[in-house]
Design a protein that fits this description.
Length: 222
């Protein structure tokens, strides 16, 4: 299928890996590389935003072994806060920096693609475990702020935008998302650490300004 459709390569995104499968996963990637590389195809893999080995499901990914096998490693540097968490930035700059630095201890910098999120989260307030949380696009986040005529604030600590609004039922909400400002901050990290580039999840969810900036400043590698 890869050959008939003219794809440039394969991206593997297996999430929730178990520690006991750590070596098996690395072996699988090695097997796949040996099958596709003779055809001139690229192998990339998406990995979690590890900052250490302290969280069990992080241990299922051997960054050193993976980095020695693949052409590019897509670092999913997002979801510090998510559908099952309390409100907060999706990709705080301090967390992104930590996972870059951890990755560089194990993987060549030119192989690392920094993953940037264009999904957002809308939490109901006051937050309690199990409270409704909604995943929305960056486009939807901006439209929400405009519709409810509320100011978009910006956290200098996390380099992430957010805003509060009250819905038609009188329920208070907070939304954290990504915009051009937060994207630029992550672009500076890519340059500072001389990484291989960036990737997004997913481009269709971004705001127009961010898409335009990416198309103007990013060189497509595959």
């Amino acid at each position: 299928m890869i050959s008939t459709r003219g794809y440039a390569g394969v991206n593997i995104d297996f999430e929730g890996g178990l520690p006991e499968d750590r070596d098996l996963y690395s072996d699988f990637l090695r097997f796949l590389r040996d099958r596709i590389r003779p055809r001139g195809l690229v192998l990339t893999v998406a990995v979690p935003a590890k900052t250490g080995e302290d969280i069990p499901w992080w241990r299922g990914y051997d960054f050193g072994a993976i980095g020695s096998v693949v052409d590019y490693m897509f670092l999913m540097a997002y979801d510090w806060h998510h559908l099952a968490s309390e409100p907060g930035p999706v990709a705080p700059i301090n967390g992104v920096r930590q996972t870059i630095e951890f990755s560089l201890e194990h993987v060549a910098r030119n192989k690392i693609l920094l993953g940037i999120p264009f999904h957002s989260y809308d939490w109901t307030l006051p937050y309690r475990p199990g409270s409704p949380v909604r995943a929305i696009s960056s486009q939807q986040a901006v439209r929400l702020a405009i519709r409810h005529q509320v100011p978009i604030e910006y956290s200098e600590e996390y380099k992430s935008p957010f805003f509060y609004y009250t819905d038609e039922q009188g329920q208070r909400h907070v939304v954290w998302f990504e915009d051009v400002r937060s994207l630029m901050e992550k672009g500076l990290l890519i340059r500072q650490y001389q990484l291989g580039g960036l990737g997004t999840w997913q481009l269709a969810l971004s705001i127009a300004q961010a898409t335009s900036m990416l198309r103007s400043n990013v060189i497509k590698v595959t």
